[in-house]
Structure formats: C-alpha cells, structure tokens
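Reply to dn_fold:

You asked what the input looked like. This is it:
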Amino acid sequence: MSNSGNRGRRGQGGRRLVADRRNSTTPAKPAQTRRRKTTRRKAPARRRGILGFFGRVLRFVLRLIFGFLWRGTLAVLLILGVATAYMYTTLPPLGEVIDGRQRGSVTMLDRDGNVFAWRGEQFGGMGDPTSISPHLVNAVVATEDRRFYRHWGISPRGIASAIRINLSEGRGPLEGHGGSTITQQVAKLMCLGVQYDAAEWESEAEYEADCRRSSLWRKIAEIPFSLAMELRYTKDEILTIYLNRAYLGAGAYGVEAAMQRYFGRSAAEANPQQSAMLAGLLTAPSRFAPTTNLQRSQDRAAVVLGLMAAEGYLTEAEAEAARNDPAVLSDAAEARAGGYFADWIMTQGPDFLTTDTTEDVIVRTTFDPRMQEAAEAALAEVFANQASEGSDAEAAIVVMSADGSVRAMVGGRESGTGLFNRATMAMRQTGSAFKPFVYATALDLGWRFDDMIMDEPLTINVPGSGPYSPVNYDRRFRGEVTLTAALQHSLNIPAVRLSEAVGRDLVRTVASQFGIESDLAAGPALALGVSESTLIEMTGAYAGILNGGSAVTPYGLIDLRLLGDSEPMIGQGGGIRERVISEAAARQLTYMMAQVVANGTGRRAALEDRPVAGKTGTTSALRDAWFVGFTADYVAGVWIGYDDNRSLSGITGGGLPAEIWRQTMERVHDGLPPRPLPMIDPVAEARPPEEPQGIRLPGNEPGEPDQGLGGFLRQLLGGN
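and this is what came back:
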C-alpha cells in the first residue's frame, strides 16, 4: 500500500509535484527580512575611585554656576531695564537741568562800572556745542571721554582701566580715577535726580558732598541713570548739560561763566589755549584754577593740548604753537577777584542778597582798581626793600575819601579770597594814633592849638588800681609846650593831662561818635590808645577830621540790583553822618596833625607836592605800629604787626607804616593837582598878645568866669 497519503504526491526521488507544493496547506517558512545593522556607542566606563567622584562634583558645580549665571544675568537685565525705564520717566526737559546751582551769584562792579570781582556761584548763561567754540568742545571730549559719541553712557573698559590704575597706585578700587564717561559725570552732577531739600540736609555743602561721594552703590546707580539719559537726551544735549553744570573753580559753574571769570571773553571766543586750560580744570578745579596757580594751570593745559592732537582735533604744529603761547588771565582775574575788598562788600548788604543769595545780584561799589594796585605795590615794595629779610610781619591798608567811600583795601600780605582781613577784622591797640581824639575833644570845648600845657611828671590815683604815672616815649620832660607841639612829638604826659582835664567820658564820647565802636578804656591810659580798634574804623574816624568834623560810616556798596533789573533794590549804606566837633576845631586839629608830618614823628609820610596831615601810633612793647593820615583828597591808614602779638623789632608808626603810607599816596595822587588842606593859618589865627594862655576847663570859653583852682584840680586828678 502506498503511503502517499501521508507524504503527498511525490515524484521520483521523493520530490513533490509543483501543484502539490502550490496547493499545500503546510505554511511556508516566512522569508527572513534583512535588518539594518545599527552601531551603538558604548557608554564610557564610569571612572571609579576618587577621581571619578571629584569629576562628578565638578560637573555638578559647573552646571549649578551656569544655571545661576544665566538666571542671575536675566534678573539683572530685567532689573536694569525696569530701573532705566523708571529713571527715564523722571528726567526733566533739557531746559530745566542746565543751571544746577543751589545759590546765586554776586557780580561786583567798580566805581567805573567794570566787573572786578565775583562771589557765590556764577552762571554765565546757557551754551551748547553749536554756540560754544569747537576748540572748547573738542578739548572737553578729548580730555574727559574720547569715546563719548560711540558708547551708550557707560564704558566697562574705562571702569576696568580706572580700577587697575587705582590699585596700582595703592588706592581703593573706587578711589581716585573713576573711569566715568561724560554721561556718568552728568549723572553725578544731577545727583542721580535727587533734589536739594533743606529739611533733609543740614547745608547745601553737605548735599553736594554726598552727591559727589564715590561708592560701589553710587557707581551701580549711575548705570541705569546714564542709560536713561542716553535714551532721553541726544549726545549733544548730554554734553550741553555737562558744559553748563560742571564746576570750573573760582565759583564758576559752566564754561561760559569760567571764560568770563578767567579771560573776560565769551565761550564762543575760546581759542585752543583757553579751551585746554578750562578742560584741564574738570579733574581738579580748585587745584588747577589759574587764579590759584597760573603756572600749574598752564602745565595742565599743555597736557590737554597733547590729547587734542592725539585725537586729531589739532595738528602737532597747532598744539605746539598753543603750548608756546599759553593762556593768561584777564586783568580782573589777575586782580584775584578784588580780594579783601570784595570779601568786605559781601558783609555790607543783607545776607539774603549777598552771602546767602539764591538770585544773581549785581553790586556797584566804590572800588578803584588803580588805587588798589597802588596800595598793593607800595606794600610789596617796602617789605621787599626796607623790612627785615624774611619778615613775616603782617600789614593792612585802607584808602577812602572824606565821605567814607572806601577806594582800596589790603587786608594782609597774602592775596586771595576768603582770607583773614586785618583791615576790618583785626582788633588792635591804637597807641598814639588815638591822641587826635583827645585833642579834638579839647579843641571843641574851646582850647586852642597854641594853648600851653605842662610836660612834667604826673601821677594820678586811679580808684581800685592805685597810682598811674605816664611817661614819654623818650622818658624826657619838656616843661611847658603848646598843644601843637605836644601832638607833633606825640608826648604822652600832655595827652593824659589834657584828657583828664576835659574828662575821659567826653573823650570816649567823641571817639565813639567818630566811629570807634569798640569798648574804650575807662582809666587815664585811654588817652594813650590802650583801647582796640580796627584799621577801617580808625581810617573812617580820621576821614571825619578831614571833612570838617562830621562822622562817617565807611562804605563800599553804592547800590545793589538783581540781574536783569534796571532799578536797584538797595542804595548806599554809608557816608557822612552827624557832626561831632565844630569845623573850627577840625581846622585847628588838621593844622596840628600837619605839623606831625612836617616837623614831628610822621616826617617819613611827607609828600613832595602837597601837604599831609596825620598821626603815628606805636603800642606798648612795640606790638602794633600805625600811621593814619590824609591829604585834601584822600585819607589812608596803615597798620603793621604780628597776628600772634609778637613785638615788632624796632618798627614804630613813624617808620615802615609811614613809608608804606607815603608810597601808597604818591601812587594814588599821581596826576592829581595838589590842593591845600582845610586847616587854619597859624599866623592869622595866633592868639592876641593880651589874651591869657593856659589850660581852660571844659566849657570855660574866653569871657566866661574862671571856675577856680578847685575845679581845675578835680579835673586834673581824674574827677569827671
């Protein structure tokens, strides 16, 4: 039996029929699909041990830092953007930030209407890069921020460079060089938008100091403020703010005020030399101010000219030519802003219009530049050629007219502003310069220039002090002398005797009415000038003698007005006041004082072409030396002494003070025709032969009954 049923139909050899294979129900073996081989990278074998551990820690830390940095950077940028946007909204229009002063200015005019001094904070008016000299704009950019037109308000490179320089010079990173752009400097000038509030700040100076204080926080705060300004203003507008608000020394804010202050010209007229000098002031205005040290300012300007050439603003030839012809000060600036006189003027008006003014004020004064130069030249000449070599004695000079109009003032040998003014502030013993007021009292009471008085030993019992016995400078006695001779030779005993005779209280009254405002001594030494006074008081008192016996109030302010106003707010604050002694007494006293210069202790003060009246003064222990005197035109006073009251080595009032007075007045009167003094003719006024001579008591005029010996003794011995 065939087994085909089991195997199917097969051919020979056991092979199956095609049909059977086609119709077979046995599932065919699936075809094997070709698969693309993939290559897998083998994961690196994890390092084992200590190196692997630290590697994993390092990778973690790096991922942490990276994550923190990008998130922190994003947060900082967000905060910076918000801060910048906020500050942008707070920035005012350009016109409101040009004048950044907290106080106003005081501009002083001399008697001819010319500017000679400035005080306060000057602002010359708005200027911008289109109206200001291109040299000045270029000098500022080259010096302060040469990439100004190419950055967005901050310069990381500049800050990094500044920190490096500061550290290399041994300072803190933010001390010294700041690396600030002009935009950042403007941010500082604007105090980062913080306005002055009197309730918050004790003073404007404290406010300004805080605004300019460098710290990390302020440096950070400058960044959004600077960016906001770059968005709010154009580059030229930012530069405009800087050029108008920057402090340039000597009270000048802005380049316009500085040009007028130093050179007497507009900022539009600035040449390369002047421009370089102003730009050089920006880093340290007080140190480099040409009014402080012209040579130092010129040296700094030479550096700036080099920077301008390096930036292509000047050729090397132009820069070299400018260095060889440096900028110099105007005549007004050279006069150091009026010095002591201008300082004194600031005390003559109300504070709210002078020292504390918030307005710009114009003051017309009595100042005479020619006379000021005369006084300064005389002082320098005498100390250079006649004083002891290396002498550090101080001196003061005041020149005024007979009505108290002060024309010149020297308050010390050092020039400048804000210095101690010995002409107005120093209270010094007057010595024999006080004696004319003793004689003025007597003459007004009826004494005569040719009356006789005894120069002989005198002792006065002073209650509470004991006996007082004055002596003459040379310790000699001359017996009976005229009042003229007693004053001419500055005899002490006759002066005390006369003071006691007329009454000390009356002498004090006359002196105070003439303008000696200090407390006057109560004892008999009053007559010898033991009381103190200032030079301007003494000079003003002598002016009262020159004008015929009327008191004067020394003054320098003629009128004061606000800038732009035509009508003054204040008028003259001094001049001739009430009469103190009669004109007849003043004429006699002038003659007696003329004899002091012609034949007495003041001979060194004599002028060749005109008569002079005056009086010397030397205090005890030679601590003070005075000469005060006058011609028919002007009165002047000179004082010499030490600030610490040391003794002057051989200097008396008839020595160097008289010499300084003479040289001053020679220059003051140059070109003036000589005029006679308002004094008596001693020959015409001589006493008739029959008229008795001798001491008369107060009120005992010729023809009045004599008050008797008892009254005379009471007066002589101190009874008042």
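The chain has two domains: 96-340, 377-557+573-714.
Hope that clears it up.
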